[in-house]
Design a protein that fits this description.
alpha/beta; Rossmann fold; five-stranded mixed beta sheet; 7 helices; 7 strands; globular
Length: 284
């Protein structure tokens, strides 16, 4: 969830179709390629090769992932891993740092922990001009409810920091408006918005319905609510990991990522996606 020094969950961008209208033969993915941009929520190893404190290539990160620690800031899968499965890819999209040869044509994950969202870090249409036509913009989530925010800003360790969440909602409203604007003014492009804030609100409001018993603390970390910093190398995490909404001070665990990924792909509520979900976008 960290964007430089701001420590906020960045919006991330998925490109689902690059100059391709046909799904191909039976059994192939629903889209020909899948490119991912974002921060630590979806980084899957790009930071492993750089000198940075924002790394997760050590246990207990990846403790529930088949390949172990890969650089994912989770105990297991991220939301974009779940979406890759639902789109029909037979393997996860590789990080840019290790992608080679023709596998790059299938898609690359460019996400990097602590990446920024300011204008100087990129341009809206660096991508459209290279042929990208289908985009998913995923909104900012409940940053004010993260263990880090609770540890620093909550008087009781449970009440979400509303000043942070209000700012998140203002950003999301602008992002949704941007989707409308670009859909009107960018020929042949199709953009959708995923309401990650609303999906996460459901998990916080009714955690037991989703199997969560702990929503105000990380399964792994240091300090109050395990919310001061991320997991230390070889730290012992909680045993009941699927019952924790958050894995560490900033990032949801695999159980939460699976729910968010599935509802991003196939909306369960009309408010989950606008104007429609990823499944529909892939069919267009």
């Amino acid at each position: 969830m960290m964007c430089g020094d701001l420590k906020i969950m960045c919006v991330f961008l998925l490109i689902l179709n690059l100059l391709g209208d046909n799904y191909g033969a039976k059994g192939e993915p629903q889209v020909p390629c899948y490119f991912i941009f974002g921060d630590s929520l979806v980084d899957n190893g790009n930071n492993n090769v750089i000198r940075s404190l924002a790394r997760a290539d050590y246990l207990p990160y990846g403790i529930d992932f088949p390949d172990g620690p890969t650089g994912r800031f989770s105990n297991g899968k991220t939301t974009v891993d779940v979406i890759a499965e639902l789109l029909g890819f037979d393997d996860y999209i590789p990080p840019y740092a290790t992608a080679r040869g023709r596998e790059i044509l299938r898609g690359v994950n460019f996400a990097s922990a602590a990446a920024g969202i300011r204008e100087e870090t990129g341009q809206q249409l660096t991508l459209y001009n290279y042929g990208a036509r289908k985009f998913v913009l995923i909104g900012v989530g409940q940053i004010g409810c993260s263990p880090n925010a609770l540890a620093q800003n909550s008087p009781d360790g449970r009440t979400c920091a509303q000043n942070i969440n209000v700012a998140n909602q203002l950003f999301n409203n602008k992002l949704r408006a941007l989707v409308d604007n670009l859909n009107r003014n960018t020929p042949n492009a199709k953009l959708i918005y995923i309401n990650a804030y609303g999906i996460f609100q459901d998990l916080i409001d009714n955690p037991f319905a989703f199997g969560f018993r702990v929503t105000n603390a990380g399964c792994c970390g240091i300090g109050r609510n395990n919310g001061q910093i991320t997991c230390l190398p070889f730290q012992n995490p909680c045993q009941n990991r699927n019952e924790y909404l958050f894995w560490d001070a900033f990032h949801p665990g695999e159980a939460a990522n699976i729910i968010v990924g599935r509802r991003s792909y196939r909306a369960q509520k009309s408010t989950d996606a606008y104007p429609f979900d990823i499944q529909r976008l892939a069919q267009l």
